[in-house]
Write a structure and sequence with these properties.
Elements lengths: L1 E6 L5 H14 L4 E5 L5 H11 L8 H25 L3 E5 L2 H11 L4 H12 L6 E6 L2 H13 L15 H17 L4 E5 L4 H17 L4
Parallel strand pairs: 1-3, 1-4, 2-3, 4-5
Helix pairs in contact: 1-8, 2-3, 3-5, 4-5, 4-7
The structure holds thymidine-5'-phosphate.
The site of thymidine-5'-phosphate (TMP) has 12 residues, from helix 4.
């Protein structure tokens, strides 16, 4: 089973990952926890380039190709082998992020992203996606307070430095994807307190696991 977590900056998805691993283990699953960009040695270097605010002038197509390069290597080295071993792969961001960040917010268009993925990645899609949704200004304020408290390095702040309208477009893009594929997406209200957010995420995952045909 391939599960992804998505959401705008500051949505809190990364904090919740360990609790989701615990739910999976309670259900007897062996879990591979990974992320994009940066799920491989190669990808960690690509991530540093992509998130560095020094690269604010990066061409949107160059940005897209770097995310896809990270993904191609990640799918080959980590995701497909883990799925082949029968593990559950829990991935912090995947292709939906490219559709909304590069396709919608950078205006490269959804069709280009889909075509490119079909060419280089085939048809690997998540079985379940938890979308952590909250107003863009709330998410951005949380993300910046993480930087201020030193919990994250400002060398990873290129996207947080984008204007509010960019993040609003990302949020709307994600919600539109969730409306298109209501079976796959579970939308979590990430504007609630951390315990409530974690409970919603655990419950959504538990329901999905229990509704699976054995
Ligand atoms: P993270 O902070 O969740 O690790 O994500 C890194 C940043 O990269 C985040 O701002 C979203 C962005 N991103 C894209 O723009 N396109 C993508 O395909 C992916 C996976 C992430």
């Amino acid at each position: 089973m391939f599960i992804t977590l998505e959401g705008i900056e500051g949505a809190g998805k990364t904090t919740i990952l360990p609790q989701l691993v615990a739910v999976l283990e309670d259900h007897g699953a062996t879990c591979t926890l990974t992320r994009e960009p940066g799920g491989t040695d190669f990808g960690r270097q690509v991530r540093a380039i992509l998130l560095d605010p020094e690269h604010r002038g990066l061409d949107p197509h160059a940005e897209l190709l770097l995310y896809v390069a990270d993904r191609v290597q990640h799918v080959r080295e980590v995701i497909r082998p883990a799925l082949a071993r029968g593990e559950v792969v829990l991935c912090d961001r995947y292709m939906d992020a490219t559709i909304v960040y590069q396709g919608v917010a950078r205006k490269l268009g959804r069709e280009l992203i889909l075509k490119l993925h079909a060419l280089v990645l085939g048809d690997l899609r998540p079985d379940l996606t938890l979308l952590f949704d909250l107003p863009a200004e709330v998410g951005l304020a949380r993300a910046w307070s993480d930087f201020d408290r030193g919990e994250r390095s400002r060398r990873e702040s290129r996207f947080e430095q984008e204007h509010l309208a960019f993040h609003e477009a990302v949020r709307e893009g994600y919600l539109a994807l969730a409306r298109r594929e209501p079976q796959r997406f579970h939308v979590i209200d990430a504007n609630a307190d951390p315990q409530t957010v974690a409970r919603q995420a655990r419950n959504a995952l538990t329901r999905a696991l229990e509704s699976q045909v054995p």
